[in-house]
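Lab notebook: predicted structure, single chain.

Context: the supervisor wants predicted structures on file for every construct in the current expression panel, including those that have not yet been purified. This is the next one on the list. No modifications to the sequence; it matches the entry in the shared construct table.
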Amino acid sequence: MASELQYTQYLDSIRSYTEQDQLTKAMILIGYVERDFIRFYRAGRIAEGVRFAEENLARSKDLLNRLTPEQKVAQLHALVDILSFEGIQNHVKIFKFVQLRTQYHQHLLDLPVTTAKYVPLLKRIITDFGQLAQTDGLAYADHLESTLDVIYYINAHVREKLTVKQVLAHVNQRCNPIGVQRGFNTEMHMSIRDYINVKKIREAQRILLLTTMRIGQIAQELNFYDAADFSKRFKRELGMTPLEYRQQNSEVD
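Prediction complete. Output recorded below exactly as produced.
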């Protein structure tokens, strides 16, 4: 691994990184640590990968403290999706990856994640998925790199008004936009637009369970057109309205 490119080694010398505000830098750092860890994960070198992640996050504790508990949880949800996706993509027996993904997403809904809890949780997640993946090394798909870029960007900006054009503008600095979309469709079995919608609905579920925000406020927070648009998309995805979901799954009034 020492002879292979590790993105985190170059972060402090990248101008576009060093000039960012501290909150943005923290999110970028986590994304790059995860991105480098994937290389260990694919090779089945989980213990090395865990040490790598711990060391890089430990030296940036001040940056991690800039993230809110909600942002830390969002990053862990994203990591679960990525590790699960890797396993589903590269293993014949996928049910355990799907099952573990569901368990962690449910578990994270109920957790306020402080910096002290973040690293142990991250370690637990990558160890659990690593044990499933360790039976054989993970194959690497050339177009997976751009797909991961899309996933990272959407997860980091899920509360903003996201468009496919905006996402592609981020990734297309290095990749052909048509190739990025085709690769994403192949890997994720959905379009970039559909993935944006899925992530926004998942974030809405979390807000509904953990806060008392009104439906209109949530729609505004996640940059839906209005409350009616939010409710329509939510019901199309989950088969119930946001209010029905809150009433059935939470003690929040």
